[in-house]
Please model this.
Amino acid sequence: MKTGLEIFTHYFDLVLLVYTIAICSSYLILAVVSAQALIYYKKKNANTDYREILASPISPAISLIAPAYNESLTIVENVRSLLALQYPSLEIVVVNDGSKDNTLEKLIENFDLEAVPYAFDAPIHHQEIRSIYKSKQEIYGRLLVIDKKNGGKADALNAGLNVSRGKFAACIDVDCVLSQDALLKMIKPFLESKNRTIAVGGVIRIANSCVIEDGYLKAIHVPDSLIARFQVMEYTRAFLMGRMGWSKADGLLLISGAFGLFDREIAIGCGGYDHNTVGEDMELIVRMRRFMIEKGEQYEVNFIPDPLCWTEAPSTHKILSRQRNRWMRGTIETLLMHKKMFFNPKYGVLGMFSYPYWFFFEWMAPIIETFGIVYFMLLALLNLPNWPFFFALMGSVYAFAMMMSMAAILFDELSYHQYKRFKDILKLITAAMLEPFFHHPFVVWWAIQGNIDFIKGKKSWGEMTRTGFSAPKK
Amino acid sequence: MNTLKSLSEYALYNHGASMLFIFWLIFSFLILACTFLIVTIFSRLSKISDSRKSKKLKAVFELIILQMLEEPETALLKAEFEKSFKKKYLKNRFQKQLLVDELVAVHKGLEGELANSIQQLFRKLKLDQYCLQKLGSSSWEVKAAGINELREMQITEAMPLIAKMVLDKEFLVRGNAQLALLELQNSRESISFLKDLSYQLSDWEQLRLHESLKSRGNTKHDSFKTLYNSDNASVIIFGIRMSSYFGCHQDIAALTLLSTHHNEEIRFQSIKALRKLGDFEAESMLAQRFSSETIKVRIAILDYLRGTGYNSLQLFLDALTSSDHQLSLMAAFGLRGGYDPAFLSSLLAGLNLSEEVLLRLKHAEDPRLPAP
Model:
């Protein structure tokens, strides 16, 4: 006769086993699909001359929307860099989201701005716009500055969506560094697709320790800080081995808020960014997709693997914990807002695969992992574990993690060959070997804190202090 | 169910067998991790080696190309040179492809005699044969690259083969074949093959075709109306766009007919084209159609009517107070741009316009601010 504990451990072991096999298999399948998509993309664009877009009157207008809050230190340099982007019909819309510092004054002074009687429609809600500015100088003719009451990033983006005029809207973080041809590459999927493309996302790369001068990326290096280096591994896996695959499978649910290009009409049509979530970037894509499916229209969401956007990653545990906590809350909020899609065949790949994947392997993974750890500790207290078996299992998980990280390094090498120095590859290999011990446990813990804060009803973003690119290390 | 249960029990409690399986897993994962690592290192080494090799070869190729451009009648075209050069520098695919790439890149920037010299060298070294072989490849990317190279080097013999690929199921092959056919035919009617295209002509393909029409010195085109008879809406739209960009006044009558087409985008594009061509013969017809049109087409009509004087004044005033922002703003632009300011001020003063409408009128006054 089995005791209650034995029955519990039997079933709990079984759940953990099935879960582990499922999550590892999904990673493997995604990696294979991503590899196929990456190879296809590289072949297709090997001889593309993006300059053709530059000269063509067929190129559609793009509005680049950059919300700015207390960015006075870097705003002028950032806007200059945006103004230098290559694209024929481009409008740069900087939204000053009620900054408490002198962000607006700096913009007015440096770009010779004056208030204009700008008429716009406001189909989506946002905080009051105080004024809209244009430059007196023709050289800054592309620039439009909106000054509004503070309402958060989603609110600022909504104001930008309302005021802007482009057929497409590129929503970015103002402190990101975009490669000069970023928009030329991002617009191509919109131009070549058979169905209406509603959004395109790109790879976000980590710029810590890279050499950036006057808003331009001059040299690419692996970050010196180990925390940032771990994030390089995470980003490479997530973008090249995850989103690329989801895009190919028509199941992409997230385009990073740091840089995405959207069909403005659809973004507005579905209500714009939601103010009630900290995961507004993911939520918008899910809503746009639902909007198209519910309207019964054929559409596409694409992802391109080119390294077009560079951002500064948190380099301390304190800041990183806030970011991961927010990401987890954003994921939960989005999943709950769209719970109707869960295993709903009406939503196709999204309902049957993407949503359940996010539910089980993004939201639940840290919770199940934590339960596993607590369970193991209890067994250890009762001296029940089979230690050799335990170490063998741990070894297999570690070997799997190593394999995936090495695959990510290979993907990076074969696709865009970003890190030119051998030294950089060695640094990445070291980071991959250390990550399961020195980074992953923290990530799990921050995700658990995100869950707890979600239950508590926390809605804040948490301050993201950045050191900035102004003092590059050469 | 029982099998599943016994399997799970076996996996969980038969530690001997499970251990063996786990060790096999660890071994497999580590072997794969090492393989990925080795491939990464080899890929890096091969890139370094390729870059060194191509640097050396490029120096030789550049010298030959330069000599060919300076003295096209020299020893470069003699049989001995050809033989020795091919033996030394065109031994394998890597070397051939490198030279093809170099020649194509140089040819792109040249015209006339200089471009002919490069084409001559290309043929003399039998690189045309190398590229023609690519057309028979089973992989689409090789085929697509081959078409591009043959097009750039003006190898007209390739036309029959390329013509078969215009309807290829692969997007890139199809697009490159369209471009190649357009450029290799080199006649006024060369565009007409598009008429029978069954695939949708994407904006990307249209953009490339347009660039090609521009860049080959074809700055003057009489007409694109042959494309208007296509059953493919995207081809008609391309035709309209080209008529507009190349200023084909001869197409105006056909464009006027298209402005009543059942397809909204075709109507929109044709009205835009008529405005761009400066033809206002369709004024009364479009003004009559205005109220029955979609908002998008109405905006295009208002834009068209901006240049027609006082005949459409009432229509602009009605649109100005419309609930649709874009329509109202376009009407504001039409009123501000098309009428005498003093007359307009006195006219508008008599109307009880809302704050919003007044702002739109002010917006339309500022030349820095965009129209819808």
Summary: Chain B has a mean pLDDT of 87. The two ends of chain B are 65 Å apart (CA to CA). Chain B is about 70% helix and 0% strand.
